[in-house]
């Protein structure tokens, strides 16, 4: 079992990193995770395992991450604050790192009203920044949130957070990134990029404040598979920005999936040369099989 | 102000059954949000009577959560109360429990659902303002409360899901974090938000008794 995050090594050596998302199944079937992992073998340096994303019950991210570890894939365990309070979260950090998980992405989590149990009570005892701060303190100072000391081995994980250049109000988003870095974020995975212009403007500001030197930013890419998906991303998913031009390109295409792939490919090429971007994070919702081609054709394999 | 809404009549009827009932309202919050004032108590009495459910009497307490005051006011209704095994209360959850405590032998029927502690924006619109967390943080956020008004109670918001100032959970509601930012910006105090707020001390919300 490695004591160190491979993702952290790659990024700290200044190499370009690729991460990809693996959503756990709505079942107890370990093969669903294994099959997705085999499909993506060699395509990414580490794999995000989502934590009941969009508040839909799935296999836990901790279990999914361990299934990847058993295949010698490196997981990035996502943790949200929706379903566990500070006691449950800290307990899972201890368990996850004991089992060999070396990357944790801290998120506040989608509200339960969006998922398949809208009648559930959301926990939200803490938020993503506080989760980062708590894990950092467990690692650096050997204390729990309450100040009570850990006894023995401290957790060791490379800590990540999300950033969204398209969120409202825009003016606060760079400050919010800085706050996440202050709280303990070592890497950032951004919201999926469709509006390159706005993303570039955000990165200009990030660089102007020197934040790209303090944290490794991986830009998010999600290929659009269909007109329906483009519509959902444009009009229904909070905090995403699909510009009219991109939307029209997909809508007018004879083969929307092919067009979506071409757009994603171009986006990756542009992002790769954007100063301050240290990697790409690919989330192919229900379209994981497209990732190998995307990685190969964008030239990321030989990076 | 404690904001309530009346339960649907069918649900109330199902819980009452055919036997006589005594009605209780409240002169304060339930009156101001039109769920248990004199007008609403009389209206419900008429509806019940028209469904052949006898109403042995009614009263509007001042307020229903005041135990000692209730005892005094209810002295005038002893005979009416004797005729009913059931008391239907149109007050907040507190008022209902105060009546339940005074009449342990009676069946208590809740006529309202208690929603939140909020502000009267207009005569007919109310908005949540406080979850009584036991430790007020309003001075950190320009007098606007994310604990009660953000659906994720984020102390380090915004979450990133709001759009043009509207909350992602309910676009009819303004994102409180958007309001906090705009407000502090106007005051030139946006720097207040650069500090990472630590986890909240929720043990303060656990108080259930207070003597002075």
Describe this structure in words.
The complex is a heterodimer of chains A (303) and B (212). By secondary structure, chain A is an alpha/beta fold. Chain A has one domain: TIM Barrel (Alpha-Beta Barrel). Helices cover 39% and strands 15% of the residues of chain A. Chain A has eleven helices and eight strands. Chain A is globular and about 60 Å long. The model of chain A has no long low-confidence stretch (mean pLDDT 96). Helix content of chain B is 30%, strand content 20%. A four-stranded parallel β-sheet of chain B has the order 3-2-4-5, sandwiched between helices. In chain B, strands 1-6-7 form a three-stranded antiparallel β-sheet. The mean pLDDT of chain B is 96. The longest helix of chain B is centred in the first third of the chain and has 13 residues. Classes of the chains: A alpha/beta (303), B alpha/beta (212).
List the helices and strands and how they pair.
The complex is a heterodimer of chains A (303) and B (212).
Chain A (H helix, E strand, L loop, with lengths): L5 H7 L4 E6 L7 H10 L6 E4 L11 H10 L4 E6 L5 H13 L4 E5 L20 H13 L17 E6 L9 H11 L3 E6 L3 H13 L7 E6 L5 H9 L8 H9 L3 H17 L4 E6 L8 H7 L6
Parallel strand pairs in A: 1-2, 1-8, 2-3, 3-4, 4-5, 5-6, 6-7, 7-8
Helix pairs in contact in A: 5-6, 9-10
Chain B lengths: L1 E5 L2 H8 L4 E6 L2 H4 L5 H13 L4 E7 L5 H8 L3 H5 L3 E4 L3 H10 L4 E4 L1 E11 L2 E6 L15 H4 L26 H11 L26
Parallel strand pairs in B: 2-3, 2-4, 4-5
Antiparallel strand pairs in B: 1-6, 6-7
